[in-house]
Design goal:
- The structure is a single chain.
- This protein has a 5-stranded parallel beta sheet, sandwiched between helices.
- The chain is built from 5 helices and 5 strands.
- It is globular and about 35 Å long.
- The relative contact order is 0.20.
- With about 140 residues, the protein is of the alpha/beta class.
- Helix 4 links the parallel strand 3 and strand 4.
- Helix 3 packs parallel to helix 4.
């Protein structure tokens, strides 16, 4: 089964961006972790990252059209992108929202997710293991 792991703004900067919050692991480390976990579960995992909202919306349309499960870290789009929320709501397969940090333990503006209500579930606060948990959750559905 094919699974898309989609990442929003600034996630390619992992390892250098606020390591006290996001850790020292890089985006390449994340890609390797997701692919390895996917292989263990029998998934063909494709990991993507964009800083562009329109690109992310297009990827969600692709997933909906192809009935492809999604692990989504919307990053900053989480808090304000109604376009992203509307694209996620068109899902035809499970969509799990993930966050490396726990948004509820951070600044107040991060406490709201416009995506959560249309996601199958949300996993947050476990560092890169949030992705592993999301992929395992897909396997359990």
């Amino acid at each position: 089964m094919r699974v898309l792991v989609l990442n929003g703004p600034n996630l390619r900067r992992l390892g250098t961006r606020e390591p006290s919050i996001y850790g020292a692991e890089t985006f390449d480390d994340l890609v390797k972790l997701c692919r390895k976990t996917g292989e263990e579960l029998g998934y063909d995992v494709e990991v993507r990252q964009t800083d562009d909202e329109a690109t992310m919306i297009g990827w969600l349309h692709e997933a909906a059209d192809g009935r492809i499960p999604v692990v989504l870290n919307p990053a900053a789009f989480t808090h304000y992108s109604y376009g992203l929320r509307d694209a996620a709501s068109q899902r035809t397969a499970p969509l799990i929202e993930v966050h490396i940090s726990n948004p509820h333990a951070r600044e107040e503006f991060r406490h709201t997710s416009v995506v959560s209500a249309v996601a199958t579930g949300t996993i947050a606060g476990f560092g890169m293991q949030s992705y592993v948990l999301a992929l395992r959750a897909l396997a359990a559905l």
